Amino acid sequence: MRVAVLEKDSVSTGDIDFSSLDMAAKTEYFDKTDAGTLERIFAEFDGIVVNKTKIDGRLLKKSGKLKYIGLFATGFNNIDTATAKEKGITVCNVSGYSTKAVAQHVFMFVLAASGSFYEYVRSVKRGDWKRSHLFSYYPYPISEISGKTMGIIGYGNIGRQVANIAEAFGMKVLVNTGRDSGRYRNLSKEEVFSGSDFISIHCPLNEATAGMVNAGMLALMKPTAYLINTARGGIVNEKDLFAALSEKRIAGACLDTIGTEPMTWDFPLNELDNCLITPHVAWAARETRQRLVDSVAENIRNFMAGKPTNKVN
Predict the structure, then answer these.
(1) I want to staple 116 with a disulfide (CB 3.0 to 4.6 A). Which of 39, 86, 140, 289 is the partner?
(2) Fold matches, 2-97+286-304 and 99-277
(3) What are the backbone dihedrals phi and psi of residue 195, each rounded to the nearest 5 degrees, phi first?
């Protein structure tokens, strides 16, 4: 089976071993592809592996002998899975590979926000401590997270890990999920938003969740609460979030994903002091990326053996 691996540079800076993919199939690697190259790949290869490249119906209709699409990701909203199914093309994602890394990133945000971490680091860099007559100064708010409430929207692998860590910190946990969690009572989104000190988003981006975090939901939040999004940027209405943050109706937001990536130069949320943004790296620990590549290789081997795993269409 001949497989084209697109966006290799999205999962490696030279620190990842791709031998598992090389052994799984006859692989060729493409870091960046223009439209013409994409059409050639779709016409000539038996399979492709992508990350965020948009695979629409137009491309799929030119797919030639293509019979497999693998994802360097859990989310597959960039793939026209319905057309792929019509064409007899199997689409497989990878789930669970980034659970620990993303949950870790969530609590990096939680701790940074609750302890005004970046404000204190910047203050010391400016020389404020050198000028202080006290051994300890604390002009920026610091609060314990023990006793606070973590609200979780979406209770899959990552949501469960966030709940486990929250409890270890002595936090209360509220959950909104589409299924019985077996551990927490399934609350409405409105109950979670109104009752939480931190709200962490862990649901997929689809028609039901696009723009779900809007002015109405933000209005339910406590003025001391923080919104955390490590899922998909499109889940949050960014204009509504900008208004809520600008008017100090909520304490802050911590975003690892935004609607358009990479960020545009005029992205307004980046100008706000109460909005912490990281460049979609919650999943990017080296161990996580190696696990992802090895899981993609396993998906290919299973497909070739006639037993596809993690099929999404």
Answers:
(1) 140
(2) yes
(3) -100, 0
Q: In what order do the strands lie in the sheet with 149-153?
A: 172-176, 149-153, 198-201, 226-229, 252-255, 275-277
Select which of 28, 86, 261, 287 is catalytic: 261
Q: Which is the catalytic residue, given 202, 280, 289, 291?
A: 280
- Domain spanning 2-97+286-304, CATH class: alpha beta
Helix 99-114 to helix 157-168 angle (10° resolution) is: 40
Q: Give the span between the Cα atoms of 203 and 147, in whole angstroms.
A: 25
Task: Encode pLDDT of 247-289 as tens digits.
Answer: 999 999 999 999 999 999 999 999 999 999 999 999 999 999 9
For 73-114, the pLDDT digits (tens) are: 998 989 999 999 999 999 999 999 999 999 999 999 999 999
How many whole angstroms separate alpha carbon 124 and alpha carbon 169?
A: 27
Domain range list for the chain? 2-97+286-304, 99-277
User: Which position among 105, 202, 232, 291 bears the catalytic label?
Assistant: 232
**Pair 187, 152: CB distance under 8 Å:** no
Handedness of CA 275, 278, 282, 285 (dihedral sign): negative
Query: What's the pLDDT band for 181 if we cut at 50, 70, 90?
Result: low
What is the pLDDT at residue 36?
Answer: 85
